[in-house]
Amino acid sequence: MSTPDVDVNHNKNIKTEDLLCPLVEYEECDFSKLLEKPRLLNIERQRSLDERSLSELSIGMSPHHSTRGVDLNSSRIFEKLDYICSPVGRRSGFSTPRSQTGFDPHPMVAEAWEALRRSLVYFRGQPVGTIAALDNTEENLNYDQVFVRDFVPSALAFLMNGEPEIVRNFILKTLRLQSWEKKIDRFQLGEGVMPASFKVLHDPVRNSETLIADFGESAIGRVAPVDSGFWWIILLRAYTKSTGDTSLAELPECQKGMRLILSLCLSEGFDTFPTLLCADGCCMIDRRMGVYGYPIEIQALFFMALRCALLLLKQDDEGKEFIERIVKRLHALSYHMRSYFWLDLKQLNDIYRYKTEEYSHTAVNKFNVMPDSLPEWVFDFMPLRGGYFIGNVSPARMDFRWFCLGNCIAILSSLATPEQSTAIMDLIESRWEELVGEMPLKVCYPAMETHEWRIITGCDPKNTRWSYHNGGSWPVLLWLLTAACVKTGRPQIARRAIEIAEARLLKDHWPEYYDGKLGRYIGKQSRKAQTWSIAGYLVAKMMLEDPSHLGMIAIEEDKQMKPLLRRSNSWTL
Ligand code: GLC
Q1: Furthest-apart CA pair in the chain: how many Å?
Q2: 128 alpha carbon to ligand 1 midpoint, in Å?
Q3: Whole-prediction pTM value?
Q4: CA atoms of 340 and 238, how far apart (whole Å)
Q5: Which atom of ligand 1 sits closest to the CA of residue 284?
Q6: Does the beta carbon of 56 sit less than 6 angstroms from any atom of ligand 1?
Q7: Which atom of ligand 1 is nearest to the CA of 468?
Q8: 510 in helix, strand or coil?
Q9: What is the 3-state secondary structure (H, E, C) of 337-390?
Q10: What would the pLDDT profile of 321-348 be if each residue is shown by its tens digit?
Q11: 291 within ligand 1 shell (Cβ under 6 A)
């Protein structure tokens, strides 16, 4: 019988029998069998194997829904996940993998694997995650913890390398943490909230280990980890897709964990928009940076998580209700994002010429955006060909900044239409110096300076112009760029960016971020041996080498969600 694996002080709403129940043991994936399957390198093939479309799932919208419900029930919902992205059966502890295409891997790859393995965090003998940074030269703060968002590239690297165990352990451990009672001062957080991070506490006297988690109650600024739950669902789908093992996602506790996350983000409120309203600093940018309201990063992750949940939820009584709500939300969310967050030259010109103070449903300038609020830089930044999803949209507010993660996730989740995806890649190519420069990639562009920096960041000395979250360059974003490149058929863009990173990353000891307009300088307070910089590089390399890995982190467009491209008379794409 296993002993409780959580800190009992935090654990007030878990029943004793839950604690004493051993975690379900899973059958090891039989890789020799998997290897018998033909390897699918062709991305087109992957597309055709894509999952349930929204039309299939229009429960309550289709007269045939009850029979479909039976068809799709239980493990059959996974029937289209029947191929494996990572055809290799290497195990943890083995030495660095060799290139499968016969090319000699870059010498950095071996170093990166070693560094990634050094970052492993064990709980009672099992690997459960990777530490944020293994840098002893700086104050630890919370960099000695396993962050949910930081673990994603590590997880993908392990999945691509045929080592799914750590990912399964991570998914189950964080699920247990979700069921803690969470309090910040006297305020109780929603049941579904997933932690930002956790760590393993060793008690040398009692010779025991416990987990402690941070749901924002210790985080600098007490920021809410809205992205964690979304990443958790996305990772569960990546694990399922990569291994073909549907049993993890089918576990009642995993189904419940997903429903709890979904309850939080699908709950009804006063909103007039389908986008998700958030406080500042609730994602990778976890400090005050003017990303409150409806930040693109959260909207794109929200969309992606909803699509993944659709693939993973069982059509039992509880699941069905959520599926129905997800389908409706996806329709509204994709319409809203594709119409109002999208900016290209034509759209920019339209906003520039907007009339204001329009009342009634015929308004073209629906959010009453003042043309005077258009920043100078955006006119130069916008290429003739290309476009992107802007940072934020709400009444009288458009944040025109470019955010890398949100745009890449929009491509991977097919929140962006194929035309919009191509346009985003076009923009990256034409604004190479600004967005890639001497180190990929800018987390956002441009930086805020002087008065704006004072007002929006609250005079944050860590987020001065072109540093950290304020226009800093983050190597971790390389994997997202590469995945987006592979999905849009533009691998040469990724290759170029990877080459730039390879010139410095190892030599500089895998910094967390770089500073300066071009990303030339190792960041002011940047940690070294930052795990997601290491894992991000590995994922980028493996994905380029074997594009079929893309399947675990990308979802094809659902034809049912084709947008109404006409918003105003002048709208074209
Ligand atoms: C910083 C980053 C955050 C990351 C954490 C751990 O707080 O802003 O995105 O998760 O470090 O690396």
Answers
A1: 73
A2: 19
A3: 0.84
A4: 30
A5: 9
A6: no
A7: 8
A8: coil
A9: HHHHHEEEHHHHHHHHCCCCCCCCCCCCCCCCCCHHHCCHHHHHHCCCCCEEEE
A10: 999 999 999 999 999 999 999 999 999 9
A11: no
